[in-house]
Design brief:
two-stranded parallel ribbon, alpha+beta, 7% strand, 182 residues, two-stranded antiparallel ribbon
Length: 182
């Protein structure tokens, strides 16, 4: 199926055969730290309590205290040998079917800006998000369902949230709420 002017959300022809059909991205700011979940950092235990070099230059503030290791154990799982925290023993059984991206970073020292960078790749809120780009590039299989859904913590649309809808990319569909008409 190829995209047409009539149907902007139809899948476009691709240079490569797709290996994945769906993407579920769970971006949960305020959730557990990456070093307590899927980003094993054994050197944190070795250097616990020590103050890292150049910390003030990187964080732009005078911080107190030292490095703090994860209080949770880690084990390797699957054919890939992926390190997973003891917090997720059931998820750990499926690590070979999951994609973990550990290469992303930002030099933004505060959470609000870093959240924009994570979701939009830019500090300007009017940029498209990952969901917008995926629907734009891959289309959707079902024209009766939204291509992607962005939800705030209370499943309410938030005007200032970094959903990143712009004219050239599909906008997210807000999740229904208890006050939505049925």
């Amino acid at each position: 199926m190829t995209g047409s002017i009539d149907n902007r959300l139809a899948p476009l022809a691709s240079h490569f055969a797709p290996r994945a059909k769906y993407l579920i991205q769970l971006f949960m700011p305020g959730g557990p730290s990456q070093v307590d979940t899927f980003d094993h950092k054994p050197l944190l235990k070795k250097h616990a309590g020590q103050r890292p070099q150049l910390v003030d230059r990187k964080s732009l503030r005078n911080t107190k205290g030292g490095l703090f290791p994860s209080p949770f154990g880690f084990k390797q799982y699957g054919e890939t040998g992926k390190w997973v925290s003891d917090l997720f023993p059931h998820v750990a059984q499926h690590v070979d079917e999951l994609c973990f991206i550990h290469s992303m970073h930002t030099n933004i020292p505060e959470h609000a800006g870093a959240i924009l960078m994570m979701n939009l790749g830019h500090l300007q809120q009017s940029r498209p998000s990952l969901g917008s780009w995926l629907v734009y590039g891959l289309g959707t299989e079902n024209q009766d369902l939204p291509g992607f859904v962005a939800m705030s913590p209370r499943a309410q649309p938030v005007a200032s949230s970094p959903t990143g809808a712009i004219r050239s990319c599909p906008a997210p569909t807000p999740a229904p709420t208890s006050t939505s008409p049925r």
